[in-house]
Amino acid sequence: MSGGLRAHGGRERPVAFVTGASRGVGKACAIELAREGFDVALTARTVHEGEAREHSSTINASDKSPLPGSLTTTAAAVEAAGGRALVLPADLLEPTTLLSGVDRVITEWGGVDLFLNNARYVGAGHIDVLLDTPVEVIARHLQGNILTPLEVTRRLLPGMIGQGGGTIVFVTSASGYTDPPGKAGEGGWGMGYGISKAGAHRIPGFLKAEHERDGIRAFLVHPGLTATERIEQDMKAFGFEGGAPVDVIAKVVSWLATSDDADALTGTNIEAQFLCAERGLLPGWGGPTANAHALRYDRSGANLEALEAALRGSSRAQRPD
Q1: 83, 114, 171, 241: which sits with the fewest CB atoms below 10 Å from its CB?
Q2: Residue 44, SS3 per DSSP
Q3: What's the CATH number where 249 sits?
């Protein structure tokens, strides 16, 4: 068993706490982690298939059509893959539901070795321009994408430190580190989504600075365009379609959770599709394809050495602030 996979606190099997596990990237990661020997606690709002909730990307329309996926479906797949599953219904806008889930996992399973913060706020305002977006909608993005994950992280950290270590993975977005190629609805995204993802993008670097010596490994993972159920059902209307298989991101998260080689990447951003291709984590997958929009990928994480070396190589360069 590698250093990354080692269960802490005397547990025989490592434990993962996965948010947004009812479908898409979260579901795929939960199943892959179970294959790699994890027991998995699963959180999301959708408990059973066919539940209807508002998931329109714009405040100008309503869409409560059921999306494929549920916690019970994911739980069955986790158990089929060899892991135990614990279903924990929760809502990012109600932090106590997530914190109660953390407490239950700690009580019933003895602790958490991996926190995968995959969920994001789903609701109107994701693809709306600022003047069409009430500030309270932006506040929901900030609550769901930054504040609630921080509360969960704070709840988990003491136990992780006390048991000798743990891994924290934040699923990030290019919207958090680059400007949109157009306005929302014309190839871009809403400001609430972008600024909330930008805030969350800074968290693993702080965790590295504050807790790497405590055995905490913290990563950002950018999936890139990924073929999830929501992309298929919701986002085609806004020009987003296709993408890499969800198994690409699942393989990368599993590698981060189980490989000692990942230690050197703590605190940085990992472009999942590139890393998966470079390391051959998903045999038979052809690798990243050109994005439909001209995005500047962040392949350097928080590391400034390469930038500074490039600047030193130019006679006109000045040291950045």
Answers
A1: 241
A2: strand
A3: 3.40.50.720
